[in-house]
Each structure stands twice: as C-alpha cells, then as structure tokens.
Backbone:
C-alpha cells in the first residue's frame, strides 16, 4: 500500500497538466470534476497510505520510495524519491484533506469566474508542489516543491491579473520569498560541499557525526535555512508579502496563505531539526523571531479594517507561535499547532470568503454588521474558528495546541520567562482581535445588503472544518490533566520528545489558567469596545496607523531597496559600458574627418606634403644612422 | 564520413534552398526542414549508437572521426571529430535550427531563398565549429558563421539593423583576428619544437609551452571566445545584434553563436592552456558573476522586449563562464546543461517576441499589457519560458544554474553566493516581463489570433525539452561526462607536470 505514495502528488499534477492544456475547452462540470476529483483521489491515497502506515508501521517508522536518479554529475548526485515518516504523513493528510475541502468550496465560490479552468489548474499544481515539498527525500526535491508552491502562490495572487494592484502584490510575494529561497539555496551549496549529500536523512546523520554543536558551519547552514523558512512562512524580516497576498481569490488565501504553504518554513525547520540543534544560537534566533513576529503581527491585526488582512496578520502571528515552539525545541508542539491552525484558519478564511461574496466583494469590516441572523452557518463557523484561534479553553483545538507551546515556553529547554510572557501577551491580543472581528461583522445593525447566500458546496466544507476545529485538539491532550499526547507520541520517532526542564514556580496548571484568563480578558475587552460601545470607526491614532501599515516595513524596504534598485537600473538603461565603445567609434570618425581635410584636390598641397614627408624621412634615416 | 555529410547536407541544401525560391515560396522552407531533420536523425543515431557503451566500458575519445589531407605542407587537415560535448551541442544546433525555420514561416516573406541560404550556412558554420579538431579548419568554420549572420541581421533586421550588423561584425572580427594570430603562433611553435607545422588539436595538446607564451596565446583565444560568449565589458554588441536581428537570427545568435564561445573555452582554452586558465580563473569567474548581475539589472531596465531578452542572455551566459572557470566536474557539467537549456529557453523567448511583433508590429513593452486576455495560449507558453529563464526548478535552466553554483561553492563560497543573487535579479526581470506583457489591463484593446499551428509546433517541443532537461538530465550528463573528464584530466596532467 505504501508503494502507492507516488500517486498522491501524481494525481494533482496530472489534473493540473490536463486543465492547463485543455481546460479552456472543457465544460465547467468537467473542469470541476477533474480539478476536485484529482485532489479527492490524492486525499484518498493519503488516507490509504496513512492507514497502512499506522496499521503496520514500516521498519524504523519511515518509508522511502525511490523514483529515479535526478542528476548524477560525477561527484554530485541527487535522487528523486519520496520519504514518508510521521511528520510528512501528518502534513500529507492535512494538505490533501484540507485541500480537498477548499477545492470543493471553490467550485461554488469561483463558479462565475471566466478563468475557472485556469484557477483549478493552478490550485492542482499547488497541491502537487506542496506534496513534493512535504514528501521529498532530498533537499533538492523539497526545493522543487518549495519553488513550485511559490510559483503557484504568485500565479494565484495575481489570478485577477487585469488589476495592476493584484499583479504588484503577486510580484512582491514572489520576490520577497525568492530572497529567502536564495539564502536557502546557498545553504544547500554549503551543506552539499561539506557533507557530500543532500539526502535529508543522510545529511542529518552526517551533520551530527561531523559537526560539533555550535560549530561555525552548522550555525551558517542553519541560519541560511532559517532565512529560507522566514521568507516562505512570512516571519520577520520577510513578512511583508503576506498581507498583500490577500489580493488572490479567497480559497487561495485559505489553502496557500493560511493552511499549507506558509507553514512550509515550519516544516523545513522541523525536518532539519538535527541541524538546528547543532546550532544553538540559530535555534534561539528562531524562538526570538517567532516571539517578536507573533506580537508585532497581532498588534497589526488589531488595527486592520479589511477582514482578510486581519486573518493574514493573524496567520503571521500564529506561525510566529510555531516558530517560537521550534526555537524552544518543542518540535511536536509546532507540528500540533500547524495541524489545528490549518483547520481553524482555513475555516476562518472560507467563512470570510462567504461573507465577502454575500456582500458583493465588500471586505471592510466597518461596513458590515448584523450578519448573525442573515448567514447563520457562516456565523457559527466564525464563532467556532475564532474561538479555536483565540483559544477557548478545553473546547477548541487551538487551546490545546497553543497551551502546549505556552507551557513549553517556560518549561522547555530553551524556555524562559520572557518567551512565556510574549506568548501570554500574544494570547490576549489574539483573543481581542478575533472577537473584534466577530462583533464588528456579525453584531450590531446591518450595514450592507446580503446579495447571495452560500450554497451546499460552501456550507459543507465549513461544517467539516468546524468539527475538525473542535475535535482536532483532542489529538494531543496534556498528560497533567489526565490526557494522552497521542500526536506527540506518534511524532516522537522523528522528532525528539518534549522535555520539561524548568519546573516551578510556573506550573502547567498556572500556564493553562493564565492562558484562559488571557482569552477571557481579550474577549471581554472586545465585548466592551465593539459590542457595548459599538466603535463605528477604526482608530486613527498614529499608533493605529503605524500598526495598520505593518510597522512601516513596506516604506522601509521601499526606500532602502526597491527605489534605489529601480533608480539604478533606469539610470543605466543604455549601458555605460557601451559608451566606451561609442567613444572609440566617434574618435575614429573624428580622425577620419580631420584626415579628410588634407584631401583638398590641389596638386600644390599634395606636392608640398610629399616634399615635407620625404625630408622628414631622410632626416630620420640620416640622423639615426 | 557521417560527419562530412552532416555539414555537407546543410551547405548543399542551403544552395538548393536559394535556387528553389524561384519556384515557390514554401520550397526553401521545406528543403531547410528536410535537411535539418535528416541531420537531426543522423545525430540521434550517433547518440543512441554510443549511449549504451557509455555506462559499461570506457568510451573511445571520439564517437566518430574523419580526417583528410588538405594542405599537407602546412600540416593542415580536414579533420572532423565528435565527442559527447560536440554531440550535445550539434543536437542543440539542429533542434534550434528546425525551430528557427518554423518560427519564421510567416515572418519572412522577402527573398525567402536567400534568407534560408544564409540560415543553413550559419548553421553549417556552427556545426563545423563544434566538429572541427584542426585549428585551421576550426577558424574557417568560425568565420563561416560570421558572414551569413551579418546578412541575416543587415537584410532582414529591424530599424537599426545596419548599425547592429556592423557592430556585430567588428566585435567578432577583431577578436577573431587575435585568435587567428594565436592559432598561427601555435603552429609555428610546433614547427620549431618538432620540425613540422601542425594545426592538429591532439598534437598541440601535448606540446609544452613556456608560461609567458602560454598566457599570451590563451588570451588570444579567450578574446574571441569571450566576445562571443559574451563576457561582461565586451557584451555590448549583443543587445543590438539580438534586438535588431529577425527572429530566426536572434534564436541562432542566442541559442548557438553564444555557445560557440563557451564551447571554444571548453575545447581549446582549458585543455591547451591549463596553467594560464588556472591563473585567469579567478578573474574570469569574477567577470562571470558581474555578468550575471549586471545583465539581469539591465534586462530589468529595458523597454524593448527583445533587448530585455538579450540582456538576460548576458546574465545566463555569466553562469556558463562561472561554471567553466570553476573547473570542477560539477560546475563544468552544470555549464554545459546551462548552455543547452539557455539555448532552448532564450530561443523560445525570442520566438515569442517575434510572434508578438508579428501581431503588434512593435517590440516596445509600453505598447503591450493585458495580452493574456486575447492570447491565453501564447501567454501561457510565454509564462512557461519566462519561468524557465528565471530558473524555476523542474525546468532546464535550474539544473544548470544549480550545478554551476554548487561547483563554484567549492572554489569560492563568496562568488557562489554572489552568483546566487542572480536568482533574485532573474526574478526581477522575469516578473517585470510577465507583468508588462501578459498581465494588467488590456489598455490598447489588442485583439489578436492566438497561437498558430507553426507557433504551437515550436512551443510544444521546446517546453518538452526544458522539462526533460529539468527533470531527467541524465542522458545529457552521461554523454558529456567523458569529454568533461577528458578536460579535467588534461588540467590535472599539466598540474602534475608543473610540479
């Protein structure tokens, strides 16, 4: 059964190829069937593979499916193969299943779009690339998927290409992530040169046996991979592209810019955790980046008025939690939060899409209101997804996964009080901006006319994701409260087990209580501000504008990098080097002009020239003899 | 003997095509396709005949060889031979030749006979360059490429075609004369060492040279090859020639003529002058990196679509130069893959630019925009080739660039990192191209027919080729490996001799 693994990326790839080549001639029903069916089959394959993996685990709890030798250039060799272990299995199942739900949703959401087949071609290609990223046995195969998802992200952000703003957003996303990708590529050169392979398992073994913890090479390699991860996962300082990426169709935002692609950086670090453990300063940097990003993005989420941008900043912030977990060494906690986040964030985006479509593409929350009764399914989706995001204690998935990270931020090997405080502050902000959104959109007086109500293809994925946003948390419940950390145990064969180094004065019980308190505080604050007092206008203070603009990073990069580059390029459009050759050419022409002056046509002038020349020549011969 | 026919068929078909134009306008095109397809078949036969042996036993030095006396008193022979390196490149030559004929099916109406005569003779020259192992013969073919190319630009080019053609001719001719001097000097040195003149590659390989002489002669060869490549600072003929040439001319210039420069370095500079090459390597690699970045930035700034694509060639060929002078097996094979895939991806972009020009009668980026609306198929193909050119993994250019940079990292991590910045710069121009040509609103309200049959028949094989090199380059790598090993062996031997 495990040998069928290659079908998981192959179905979506085939779907993408067929739709790209012939999709424009197919009727819509056939396009839907192909586009959704290919992902459905991929999901089916991944369930079968997963079931067989769990039922009879392969030796070493890992399975390698070699496909072909990609390149064998003398001393360089890279094989194309798929590697399945608990971590990639988790990603595989989440990507295909959530992907399938989002594809189903898209059949209704995109039904009137003239680029229907193109949309599904891109989405299918995305899923294929993502699966390659997740399953690649070799960092180079992973890199193919890595760039492939970037390409699809670019194509889908710019899907409505007629609007130049969308194209600019797409370009920004591609370029900013490309910067990280380039660092990643340099990391690959370094790893290959010093360790002689790019096969992930061998690489990790060789790194552990050849590099001392804290050695310069390990630090450099880990730092370069971290830069790549920051680009893809929109972490500081490469986070600026994600809010603009919301220009894409909402199903795209749900799949690519919330549930799957943006967590690729988390996956990369978890996959190469052995390397990061050899580089303690870099691992600490991961935690610091995560903690800083989660706070900054949460503040920005608080100041947005566009419903999708709130969710975008929220995504950056939640991935910040995952980075924090990775930096703490709580590897499985990061993967757990990845899973629950995929469920509830996809849910929130899909629900937001339903709102946007119901209101004629209105995205400004301050022009919404009172939708609770108009769109009940969407409302409950937001309540469940939002509560999971904010961490409603004991009921929702988000509580358990976030609580694990919060507890590890104190108790874990890299934990300290600062990380713990950052995590708590983040929890407060998360709860505040989530309920701000819900109160603004669903309560108060209705401000916009509901034009369309979601149909079955939209409701069904919402309901399934609602269930998962609640149930998903029970995959891993804290043992201190009598739960079983099933997911952590499952991941333990790949990722090191969670450790509890610091005990007291903060205990797991205090952490959980504090987190619940933060949730309640955020909720109450939002209730007072946006339900009771019903703030009708976004805050216009300097701080709010600063936060709303994402802490000024766009202006900074624009001034420091973008404008100088464009200026430099424009100044040298005609290539200064060519001026040198043009100079030679005009000098030759000038010489020719001057010499032509001697050609007067007068015999006397020629004769005197002849005489003078002969005299000089004779004098030269006689004098130098 | 097969090697003789490879060249002779093209020469003869060229004459025939020139004559046939009197009868019909299509005849020269069909004759061209027939001749090129025949050659292509012959080369595939060579490939498949030798491919199984590569894996098992050590392959012979040459897959096929032909040696006739030509001017015996000066030791000049009509000596053709092909190894994996040459074979890969003549396959590229014939492939792109077929593409070039198809791409100009409608575009060239004026004196089609003379056009196709020139086309086939350039290709014959290029084939000869890849096959000749007598330096005199090599120079003969080197010059044979030049004249028909000059006519292609000067007769069928765009507005500034005369300027571009003269510039192309002067740059190439002046640098070629330096090479000619070096070739003659080599033959004379051989005479003073052994008593007889020789232009034979194998004879000259084993001839010891004094360090100063070696450097001087190496520079003579390098001058010609670096101009053709082109390396930074002597690249300025390229944007003019590429932009002003007709589509087929641009395809052959970018796809093939540039490759002859790189081929010359691999075939002659490294093996004949290994010590000098090693001394020059840091400088040449630096030039390569400057070319990568400088070309990309200039490509980004252009407002003329063909000039933009032309500058991307400067950038891509910078990778080739970097790889050649990194001199290890990874980088050298990467350089070769980069040569092949650049030929295809950039050739395709020039064909795209030609197809757009046929419709818009303009190469100005500002007159484009929103073309996806009216030509989704052609735009989709364009997107594919732009992404190939930007080094998207899974497509050919990525394999080349990755191997070059991996190999370079062993020699100089700094240069590899700077070269990798070319990935970002490459994304800049690629995105700008897509943005200004295909995306955005269709403000000019263009309405055009989408891809014609001859455009499809060009795009599809080129896409397949890039995917093939990108996902399974092994057949290419296996074929060129012995030749690459030979070059490295030559360098290693000279290092030992020096000690």
Residues:
């Amino acid at each position: 059964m495990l040998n069928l693994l290659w079908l998981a990326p192959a179905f979506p790839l085939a779907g993408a190829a067929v739709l790209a080549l012939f999709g424009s001639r197919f009727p819509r029903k056939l396009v839907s069937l192909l586009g959704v069916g290919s992902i459905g089959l991929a999901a089916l394959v991944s369930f079968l593979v997963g079931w067989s993996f769990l039922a009879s685990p392969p030796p070493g709890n890992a399975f390698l499916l070699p496909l072909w030798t990609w390149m064998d250039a003398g001393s360089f060799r890279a094989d194309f193969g798929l590697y399945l272990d608990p971590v990639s299995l988790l990603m595989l199942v989440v990507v295909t299943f959530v992907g399938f739900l989002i594809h189903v949703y898209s059949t209704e959401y995109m039904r009137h779009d003239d680029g229907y087949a193109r949309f599904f071609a891109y989405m299918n290609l995305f899923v294929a690339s993502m699966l390659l990223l997740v399953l690649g046995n070799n960092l180079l195969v992973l890199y193919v998927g890595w760039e492939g998802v970037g390409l699809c992200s670019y194509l889908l952000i710019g899907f409505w290409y007629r609007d130049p703003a969308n194209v600019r957003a797409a370009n920004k996303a591609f370029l900013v992530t490309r910067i990280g990708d380039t660092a990643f590529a340099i990391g690959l050169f370094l790893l290959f040169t010093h360790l002689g392979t790019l096969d992930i398992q061998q690489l990790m073994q060789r790194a552990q046996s050849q590099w001392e913890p804290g050695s310069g090479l390990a630090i450099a390699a880990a730092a370069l991979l971290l830069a790549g991860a920051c680009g893809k996962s929109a972490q500081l300082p490469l986070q600026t592209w994600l809010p603009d990426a919301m220009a894409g169709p909402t199903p795209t935002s749900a799949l690519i810019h919330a549930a799957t692609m943006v967590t690729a950086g988390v996956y990369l670090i978890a996959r190469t955790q052995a390397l990061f453990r050899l580089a303690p300063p870099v691992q600490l940097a991961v935690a610091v980046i995560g903690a800083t990003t989660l706070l900054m993005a949460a503040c920005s989420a608080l100041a947005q008025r566009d419903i999708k941008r709130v969710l975008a900043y929220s995504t950056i912030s939640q991935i910040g939690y995952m980075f924090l977990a990775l930096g703490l060494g709580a590897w499985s906690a990061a993967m757990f939060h990845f899973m629950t986040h995929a469920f509830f964030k996809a849910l929130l985006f899909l629900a937001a899409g339903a709102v946007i479509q119901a209101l004629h593409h209105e995205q400004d929350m301050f022009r919404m209101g009172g939708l609770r009764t108009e769109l009940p399914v969407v409302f409950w989706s937001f309540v469940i997804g939002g509560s999971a995001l904010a961490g409603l204690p004991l009921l929702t998935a988000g509580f358990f996964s976030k609580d694990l990270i919060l507890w590890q931020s104190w108790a874990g090997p890299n934990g300290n009080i600062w990380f713990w405080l950052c995590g708590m502050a983040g929890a407060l902000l998360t709860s505040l901006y989530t309920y701000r959104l819900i109160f603004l959109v669903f309560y108060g007086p209705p401000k916009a006319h509901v034009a369309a109500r979601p149909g079955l293809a939209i409701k069904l994925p919402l309901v399934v994701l609602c269930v998962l946003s609640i149930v998903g948390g029970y995959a891993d419940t804290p043992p201190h409260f009598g739960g079983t950390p099933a997911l952590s145990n499952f991941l333990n064969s790949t990722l090191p087990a969670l450790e509890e180094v610091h005990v007291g004065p903060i205990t797991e019980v205090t952490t959980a209580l504090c987190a619940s308190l933060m949730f309640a505080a955020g909720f109450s604050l939002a209730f007072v501000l946006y339900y009771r007092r019903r703030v009708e206008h976004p805050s216009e203070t300097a701080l709010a504008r600063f936060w709303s603009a994402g802490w000024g990073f766009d202006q900074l990069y624009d001034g420091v990098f973008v404008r100088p580059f464009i200026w430099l390029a424009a100044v040298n459009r005609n290539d200064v080097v060519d001026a040198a050759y043009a100079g030679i050419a005009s000098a030759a022409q000038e010489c020719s002009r001057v010499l032509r002056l001697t050609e007067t046509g007068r015999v006397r002038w020629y004769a005197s020239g002849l005489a003078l020349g002969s005299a000089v020549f004779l004098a030269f011969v006689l004098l130098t003899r | 003997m097969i090697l003789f026919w490879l060249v002779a068929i093209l020469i003869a078909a060229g004459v025939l095509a020139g004559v046939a134009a009197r009868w019909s306008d299509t005849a020269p095109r069909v004759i061209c396709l027939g001749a090129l397809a025949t050659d292509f078949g012959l080369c595939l036969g060579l490939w498949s005949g030798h491919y199984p042996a590569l894996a098992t036993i050590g392959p012979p030095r040459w897959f096929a060889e032909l040696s006739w006396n030509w001017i015996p008193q000066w030791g000049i022979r009509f000596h053709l031979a092909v190894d994996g390196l040459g074979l890969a490149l003549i396959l590229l030559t014939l492939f792109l030749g077929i593409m070039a004929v198809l791409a100009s099916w409608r575009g060239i109406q004026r004196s089609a006979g003379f056009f196709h005569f020139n086309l086939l003779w350039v290709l014959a020259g290029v084939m000869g360059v890849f096959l000749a192992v007598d330096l005199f013969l090599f120079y003969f073919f080197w010059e044979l490429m030049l004249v028909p190319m000059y006519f292609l630009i000067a007769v069928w080019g765009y507005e500034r075609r005369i300027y571009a053609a003269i510039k192309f001719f002067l740059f190439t001719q002046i640098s070629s004369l330096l090479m000619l001097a070096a070739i003659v000097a080599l033959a004379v040195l051989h005479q003073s060492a052994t008593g007889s003149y020789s232009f034979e590659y194998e004879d000259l390989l084993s001839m010891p040279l004094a360090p100063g002489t070696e450097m001087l002669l190496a520079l003579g060869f390098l001058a010609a090859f670096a101009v053709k490549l082109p390396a930074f600072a002597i690249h300025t003929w390229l944007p003019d020639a590429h932009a002003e040439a007709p589509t087929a001319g641009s395809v052959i210039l970018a796809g093939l003529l540039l490759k002859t420069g790189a081929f010359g370095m691999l075939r002659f500079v490294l093996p004949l002058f290994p010590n000098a090459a090693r001394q020059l390597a840091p400088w040449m690699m630096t030039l390569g990196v400057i070319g990568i970045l400088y070309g990309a930035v200039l490509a980004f700034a252009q407002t003329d679509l063909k000039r933009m694509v032309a500058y991307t060639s400067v950038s891509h060929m910078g990778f080739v130069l970097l790889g050649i002078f990194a001199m290890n097996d990874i980088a050298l094979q990467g350089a070769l893959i980069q040569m092949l895939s650049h030929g295809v991806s950039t050739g395709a972009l020039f064909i795209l630019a030609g197809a757009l020009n046929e419709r818009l009668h303009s190469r100005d980026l500002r007159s484009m925009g929103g073309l996806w609306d009216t030509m989704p198929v052609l735009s989709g193909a364009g997107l594919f080739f732009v992404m190939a050119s930007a080094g998207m993994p899974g497509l050919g250019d990525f394999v080349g660039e990755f191997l070059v940079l991996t190999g370079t990292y062993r020699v100089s991590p700094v240069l590899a990192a700077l070269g990798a910045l070319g990935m970002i710069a490459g994304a800049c121009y690629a995105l700008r191209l897509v943005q200004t040509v295909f995306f955005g609103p269709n403000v000019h309200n263009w309405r055009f027919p989408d891809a014609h049959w001859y455009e499809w028949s060009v795009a599809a094989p080129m896409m397949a080729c890039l995917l093939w090199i990108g996902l399974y380059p092994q057949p290419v790598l296996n074929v060129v490996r012995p030749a690459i090993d030979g070059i490295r062996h030559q360098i290693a031997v000279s290092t030992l001799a020096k000690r």
Notes: DSSP finds 26 helices and two strands in chain A.
